[in-house]
Amino acid sequence: MAVQEISALPCGNAFFVFVVMHSAEDSKARFKPEILSVCTQLGGRVRDILEMGEFPLILGGDHSIAMGSVSGAAAYFRAYAQDLGLIWFDAHGDMNIPGVSSPSGNIHGMPLAHLLGRGDPELASILGFTPKLNPDKVALIGIRDIDVGEREIIHESGIHVFTMRDIDEQSMAKVARKAMEIVTDNTGSFHVSFDVDGCDPSVIPGSGTWCLAGYAFAKPICCWNIAPTLAT
Prior knowledge:
- It is built from eight helices and six strands; from the N terminus they run ββααβααβαβααβα.
- By secondary structure, it is α/β, with parallel strands linked by helices.
- The protein has one domain (about 1-230): 3-Layer(aba) Sandwich (Arginase, Chain A), CATH 3.40.800.10.
- It has a four-stranded parallel β-sheet, sandwiched between helices. Strands 1-2 form a two-stranded antiparallel sheet.
- Strand 1 (about 1-10) and strand 2 (about 15-20) form a beta hairpin.
């Protein structure tokens, strides 16, 4: 598939991006031009919303869209010489690198790597700078399905990882508190990126990449309840 048309439609306080596709050849980073275009537009919009003092809430397709939302938030805080913290709820690491560790070439398995400055130079440089994040300010929660080559990339990255085993052994409340301490330690603020496949498919079955043995929906809510006590 390849792009036929990309259009952005503002609607009050909302902003919609529509992409019309047609067939084309796949690559090691599938649909890269389309994803790069949409994420660049989204990043600019998120930055603008923050500059207006508003709160951006992004509902998107697959997790590649986070390259846009996080880039916009990081760009805003970068202007004030501040780091952005990141909580990443996901069943997967999303740390694959095109042509290196990705078995499919699907960019939705790569966004966190690019936000950390790894991988494709254009995807890593959305809004004109890279990396977007300090790995020590990133908490990845709920992972349980990691590609073979991706595992080493995650270990080398320096991010903080909480697996489903950690959640089962420590409780989501304890993991959430640790994650919040990480992302609020000397940062301007933090971004939460939530992939529905982090939850068990018995709770949220509407994902194309669902994975068994996930958490119930109530567990991520625990983090939202803890957040205001540590982010004031």
